[in-house]
Hints:
The protein is mainly alpha-helical. The chain has 17 helices and no strands.
Amino acid sequence: MAQHASHSAADSFRLSEGTFTKVKNILLAIGAIGWILLVVGFFVDHERFHHSYLLNSVYATTFAVGALFFVMIQHLSGATWSVVIRRISECLMMTLPLAFILFLPNMIGLHSLYEWTHHDVVASDPILSRKAGYLNEPFFIARTIFYFCVWMFFAFKLWGWSVAQDNDRNFSYTEKSKNLSAFGVLVLTATFGLASMDWVMSLMPHWFSTMFGVYMYAGCALSFTGLLILICLRFRANGILANAISEEHYHDLGKWLFAFNTFWAYCAFSQYMLIWYGNLTEETIFFRHRFQGSWEPVSHLLIIGHFFIPFGILIARWAKRHLMVLGVMSAWLLVMHYVDVYWLVMGSLYQDGVQLHWLDLAGLLAMVGSFGYVFWIRLAKQSIVPVGDLRFERSLNFHQA
């Protein structure tokens, strides 16, 4: 349990050995159960294994990308309020190397996942033949490696400067982080947009949408914000950063959650409206499959559960300052984000209807355990707040204007 005797003392913001060990063991157990089930599933149902694995690896990666985006935005805006929660965000951002490693099995399963990897199908399909210069296995793999390398470059730079500042309180690190983020947020936006098209949109290679990358990007920012709120609330329940992260900080986090969920809904509606208005067969096929059979109630759930319910609750000021309500809505939106990614991935692979499988849960457990473990190990290695940032004291005393 963290000590709070002095806000200025670096060792006041470190995890206790008991807390660290307890959470580490829980995460290891969750991950172990998930990976054992996945290994069994690989041999029992090879095809479904790859589908479930893609679903959960994409879902997990969105949190790491969302964390990198959040850290960059805070540096770019020069925000003071978020300094106290930035180290948690940075540790989530630094799960990107693990995201890359755990994404590699998808490369092995390309032939099971993507229609455009079947040369006989491509040869007999004029549309896929025209896209073969882009949608081919070597170029797909090269692009994926490139995306992760770019993201990890920015993550390691920002992480290194933040940790170094803990030791010497040098303001130049803040300036360098701001300058890098100005360029980095543009690169991150472009590369993740392309990555989402490669990994998810190309599951239906005849379909295309210019809004898809932005839609997925909004989901990254939203899901990360929800996870950050839940982590902070869990820390608070255990006496960690209970004084440092105040109701004022939660209020701003609630604003971010509300804003990103509204932006996600805007992207979703814009994509649907443009496709509906254009009424082109190669575009409308995406929604036609998702509004038939057992996919239809899932589509309605996303409309109501992902937007209208959170919007109606989080629009109120009191809801953003009521920690239980904020926590429930954060958890709810994490579930809705999973439903959204499931709808995107499995809706492309199983167009006749929802096909739930125990491997979906196995993959989720494996990712939660693995990403949680890496996050927790990194968080425990240094101060859990950026004590060297010259705005740190002001962040502790932040109040809404």
